[in-house]
Write a structure and sequence with these properties.
Elements lengths: L9 E3 L10 H14 L6 H10 L1 H8 L5 H23 L6 H15 L10 H13 L5 H26 L6 H11 L2 H12 L5 H4 L2 H21 L1 H6 L6 H9 L3 H24 L6 H27 L8 E8 L5 E10 L3 E3 L1 H6 L1
Parallel strand pairs: 1-4
Antiparallel strand pairs: 2-3
């Protein structure tokens, strides 16, 4: 079956659509930031960056973040996407030794070192992000962020070694590594920065909190595997849940897409169950936990809404009018036509009607 015959399913997400009032300002800031740091160097790359709208992803995932902190988050995620593109499209992801050297230097930036004359633009841009994060965070938080970034680097090196050896990972290994290859643990650490909260170790290590974080990671990454399916197959990349199920179990592509959808729905329902089972940690801490969990929900929904409006994955375009959401989830007055992949977001009511 080719991609023209695949029916992309409605992806279930019961959480409300929210977006920061700073979305467009952050989008423009990040375009300027990427240009200043020479992360894009030609008109075609810049046009692609503009159409990707990474600033809008940050605005949807962290709808209540102050402008200065939202800019940092947007720049960080843009940096991750550009690194990912260099792995996929420039061959870096198939050269493990070279990628490892880049990772080592990047990790040094997150540990407080300074760039040198011969460093890559990626390295210099990362130092800029760190220099803006450092005044906002404790040393303990910076260490946690660096650890999450190191795990992301290690996981993408695992992917590079698989590509180099032309070795497909088995499904169990892929599912275990996917939360790290997506880099989302760094974004979850950033919730404390954007919400200006500080969850104590007792809360961060609680089993229910960890389960909510793990589920959020799975939902965002597995949705991305459906949405980016054609892009990754076109680049010959096997690191995609749908493709791995198709390769390992012999399921057809359509069956694999449908099964991934069911896995996502099951994880979201489990998130709702576990959220209701959170214990009380005390008044002020409970309020901070509620804000933390709200951003987890915004990540799951915002990732899907951003995928509609972003040009990054629109490889199966259809024109559709979508009611634009204004600040903090309030519907805007106008709708506008955009090209979107052939999937939709469904609600609990949609599922009950099926």
């Amino acid at each position: 079956m080719n991609f023209k015959n695949i029916i992309f399913p409605r992806l279930y997400c019961p959480f409300p659509e929210l977006v920061s009032p700073f979305a467009e300002a952050v989008h423009e800031h990040t375009l300027d930031w990427a240009s200043r740091h020479r992360l894009v160097t030609d008109d075609k790359a810049f046009a692609r960056l503009r159409s990707s709208k990474f600033g809008w992803l940050a605005a949807r995932a962290y709808p209540n973040a102050p402008l200065d902190r939202l800019k940092i988050v947007s720049d960080w995620n843009t940096w991750l996407f550009i690194l990912d593109d260099q792995c996929d499209e420039c061959g870096l992801g198939r050269r493990p030794a070279e990628l490892s050297a880049v990772h080592t230097r990047c990790l040094e930036m997150l540990c407080g070192k300074h760039p040198e004359a011969g460093d890559l633009p990626l390295v210099r841009a990362l130092h800029d992000i760190f220099s803006r994060l450092e005044p906002l965070a404790s040393q303990a938080w910076l260490a946690r962020f660096a650890k999450s970034a190191a795990e992301y680097f290690e996981a993408t090196l695992w992917e590079a070694q698989n590509r180099f050896h032309k070795q497909w990972p088995d499904r169990a290994s892929y599912v275990r590594m996917r939360p790290y290859t997506g880099g989302l643990y760094t974004d979850i650490e950033l919730i404390e920065i954007t919400e200006q909260i500080s969850l104590p170790c007792l809360v961060r290590t609680h089993s229910r909190v960890n389960q909510l974080v793990a589920i959020t990671n799975d939902v965002v990454c597995w949705c991305n595997d459906i949405i980016s399916l054609q892009k990754e197959k076109a680049h010959g990349d096997m690191h995609n849940l749908v493709l791995i199920m198709h390769n390992e179990s012999g399921l057809g592509l359509q069956e694999s897409v449908n099964h991934a959808k069911r896995l996502i729905e099951n994880r979201i329902r489990r998130f709702q169950l576990f959220e209701n089972q959170l214990p009380s940690f005390g008044g002020q801490i409970d309020r901070e936990v509620a804000r933390f969990v709200a951003v987890l929900r915004s990540w799951m929904r915002g990732n899907l809404d951003w995928s509609y409006e972003s040009g990054r994955y629109n490889t199966l375009p259809v024109t559709k009018r979508i009611a634009r959401t204004g600040t903090n989830g309030k519907p805007a007055k106008k709708a506008w036509p955009i090209a979107v992949p052939q999937f939709e977001i469904s609600t609990e009511a949609d599922l009950l009607a099926e």
